[in-house]
Amino acid sequence: MSMLDLTRNKLESFGALVPKLNDITKKVVEAVPYPTVNERMKATIAVSHIMLFASQFRRNIELWDATSVPINSIAFIICDSGAGKDSSHRAARRCFSAGYEMLRKEIDAKARKAAILRAQEAGEELSEEYEIYRKYMDPLPPVETSVTTGPGLIKLINDMDCHELGANNLYSGEFGDELSYNQDMMENIKILSELYDLGVKEVTYTKGQEFRSKAIEGQAMSALLIGSPTYILYDEPTKRKFQIAFMSKLARRSWFCYAPDRIPEKDFSRESDPLQAMIQEKEQIETLAKQARFMMEESIRTITKYQMARSQSHIHVSKEVFQLFEVYKRYNSELADSLPGSESTSALIRRHLQWKAIKLAGAFALMDMSEIIELGHYIEAIQFCELLNHDMEIFEHDLNKSYYERFADYMSTLVTVGGKASMSIHDIKKHGFLTNVNKQKLQEMVSLCAGYDQNGVYTLVGEGTAIQYEPIIRTDVVGISFKSIDISALNKAVGSGDENAIRVAKHDLSLGTAYGYDVADTTFPELGGLLLGDFVYSPFKFRNGARGKDNIMGGTKWLVLDVDDSTLSASEVHFMLSDLNHHVALSSDPTNDYKFRVLIELDSVVELSPIVWKHFCKLVSDDLAIKADPLPQSQIFFSYSNRPVLSNLSGEPLAVRDYVMYALEKITSKEEVQKKITPAVKKALLEDPTTTFRYAFEASNGAGSRNIIRAMYHLKDLDGNLGDALQLFHDIVDYWEVPFNPNRQQLMIDQIERMF
What we know:
The chain is an alpha/beta fold and 756 residues long. It folds into four domains: 275 residues, no CATH class; 71 residues, Ribosomal Protein S8, Chain: A, domain 1; 192 residues, no CATH class; 77 residues. The chain has 32 helices and 22 strands. It has a five-stranded parallel beta sheet, sandwiched between helices. A hairpin with a 5-residue loop joins strand 1 and strand 2. It is elongated.
């Protein structure tokens, strides 16, 4: 058995490798009430504050070799820009408010006492008067500071070192911005990395006395740095700084949490009173957070009182912890060596987890008011380490993505709900996605992004000077405009067979279809019920119930293809679309099985300009091998009672993303003049059927019928004859792993013969 297996088995026997939060961490997490904050992020903030609070008592850990190790923490979090980082930080800190108040009073009292003694030694009269002794007082620095100059940060630590209690914390909620624009951030990171292990930094001796610093010995200095991916991942200059500053200096010393995904707010729209439900839930969450803080308050006071009485004394490590430390150290080393990127930052972090765990175990021991770090404390610390096990690995993957992948990821962060985002050539170059930019390279970027991101639509806009991104919004809700109608006159005319009477009846029917529509949300299956009645309808919503191209509101989740003269019957098209959710309904003549309407469910809402809409409809109908003319968005359709409706609701909605992008590309690129295909080219195409009709040979399961029909239309365009068609049909069916059953095969041959 390998050393990796041996050490893993030992750790697993303690349950140490199971990601888990201990009781004190859970309590702090419960006090961070925001549902849009990632749970790992909450846990990282909680541990950061537990360790910061524990560091206030200056009780360093004395290791088995007599090394004195301060209890301190550096936590780094990358999260969505709207993730509530500042509010989460404040909520966690409030859990320890009672303890910080006691500490501040104790530090102040001791500082005043020391100042009075100095005033007496200086021979001051009335040495106990504040106005007299205040000039002898050591400054009372704040526990928390923002990014400052390097000398300023050292001065802060030196000032805190004048007191027996207290430790500092550097907080930044906009780390990416600071790194990009604040030149002091790099120096702060350097100081943090130097102080982390043992809290030691040599004296800086300068010519000017006012700039000299005192040496730092065993002093805890913590940091909580939170930023969004905006600069760190998507701005090339900041990304390079981050790789230099963080990856090389802080990575192995930090708790690293990567939670870039946005957690959406809860949707209350289906509640009977949505706003009241939203407010009630907010109040409940806040109440639970207050209760969590209240439950901690007394224990925090007890811990503070106990630890203040023992400030600056060491806590020790049990023999069992020393042994488990060595096991965990070897496990981390063996595991890092086995990783595909053994020299990666994630491997570097893995090699040093035992060190961070011992510091965290020390904080847990202090919160337990234990003078010794026991085995349970170290196991709990390891369990937290394992909670963040894969964060750096995932982050490195995103950090090292190709330029177009990072561009696509970045564009998705710029979009508000229901909106779009665009980036100009100037900004593309500024962020470092491309250096030399022209229209051809932008078009290439669009294609690459589309291949990488299947949930967005990318197009060139502004005459090829910018790229626009629009996310695909998937929903089960479909919109409709509809109106009940009386078709008795039309039915009578159709029954008479008088073509003129039918035209007059249709004209009279259309006169009442301009106004009076109901607009509603429904589901695609429920549309089948509408088709069984006498209605006029549209897949688009009409503003104020009035039909017109200027009254179209938003997009549509379903498409109507109007088939007037088909070589395929309604039932044949129904079978051909067996992999898609659809309804097929006959039109005004119930005896004409070759005139019908096909309603197809789309996988997302499609909102396009009128001209792009026509391209979209044409592309879909051609791809589905349904001959239908593209109609305007304001087009209305009629449903008739006593007509059969053929429905399939066990398939999938039609994936529209590629159709939308092709349609947009047709209007953004210059229309190419269609060259007539020469007989020689046609002959060459027919002689290579597996390439020419590849879409039919490689058709997915359920899409075979319609791709055969599509191939037949294509064959006709190449001047193929019936013999060619039948041969092609048999070649395609023989190529498939699962061919048609004999009955279906004969029906398909009948359809082909009708086409030719």
